[in-house]
Amino acid sequence: MDYQVIFTVALITAAISGITMYLGIRFWDSKSQSNSVNRASEILRRAEMDAENKIREAEIEIKAKEISIKEANETEFRIARQELHERERLLDKRQDALDKQAEECRKQEKQIENNRRKLAERIVDTNRRNEDLAKLIEQERIVLHEFSGLNREEATKRLLTMLNSELIEETGAIILRHEKQVKERCESITRKILLSSMQRYAASQTADSTVCTVDIPNDEMKGRIIGREGRNIRAFEKATGIDIIIDDTPGVVLLSGFDPIRREVARISLDRLITDGRIHPVRIEEIVEETGKDIQSIIKKAGDDACQEVNIFGLDDRIINLLGRLCYRTSYSQNVLRHSIEVAFLSGMIAVELGLSENLARRCGLLHDIGKAVDHEIEGSHPKIGADFLRRYGEPVEVVQAAAGHHFDLKLDDPYTIIVAAADACSASRPGARRESLENYVKRMEELETIANGFPGVEQTYAVQAGREMRVMLNSSMSTDEHAAKICREIAKTLTERMQFPGEIKVTVIRETRFVEIAK
Q: Whole-model pTM above 0.85?
């Protein structure tokens, strides 16, 4: 019984507790819901306030942009209005100018119309006068025929004959006068062109020394070069084809040979042997062979450099190689390659002055002495050798003729040949370009005088202007004027046949007649 009461009480207590808990939960939920509603309403209120603030800010910003746009538009409108005013002003000025021009045109039209009317009147008057003049001339002609007794054909023939004779005399005088003027002008222009070309091209000194020497560190090296019983020097001379001259001169060994390329190979080889220190026949042959290959490379490079300097391209490799060989060729101590380059530049300048092709003139000048590279190996003069060589490798006709005729060996009918001949003479005769030793110079002067003195009737002979002119004095009692002219030609012919000389030699024969009387 007690257990039932306790159970009932516990059950009632539990039910009351559940109801109380349920009511508490419902109360808490309602309270929480009211708080959420209040919070939501507060959020909505704040959101509305923020939206209103942003709307106001946007409106203010829009108004500011509208104001700035309005100001910009007003500025543009003001600038456009100023431009329009300026254009209107310019148009007004142009309109005024056009009105003035139109007024001037109307005035000129009136003036032209007046001139045309006056000209028509003058033409009519002139025609009338011409008719009257023709009538008068016809009347005078009839009167002249009556007085002269000649008909019209005979008078015309006689008049034409007289006019023809007078015109022939006047034509001859005019031709002579113009020939003299043209000759003087041509000489002046030619002198100006040559002087201008020589001044514009300032070349360096082209004269080279033909003496080949090799410095040695001490005199003991001479013995090593000679070798035991002379085997080293014999091997060197056999390999190079150059003679070694060893004398008492301290610190120097001389190399002698007519071929400049072989002489250069010998010089470089001997320098290398002295530097290396191993001097024996096997080593000499090795060094000479290596040096020969190096010299060929140097020759090829020298030819390429010359072509690039003159701006000439498209040459055959054999021609370029021969150009490089000219680097070791001298003529009267003038380096032939530098001389060819100088002639090329001078020819180009002269051609430009004459309105001809500068590149073709340079090509002719660069290759005019190409025959000197092989004239020791092929028989003949270097102009002929060079012309044959250039013709074989397809060079233009102008280049071939310039090589063949630059020493006046042929008839000069091509302008480029004449240009190259003039440039060659300028380069060779420039002070310091060529030089001779004193012994050769004196020997040549003596030979010139000896040849002239060998002719009959010659009393005295003088070689002047460095051998470029000969003055021969004849005995007037042993010769006549005709004999003097004959001796002059024979002396010039003998000099050409028996001597080699640069340029030309002028021979002047003088026959002086003297009469002496004694007054007593």
A: no
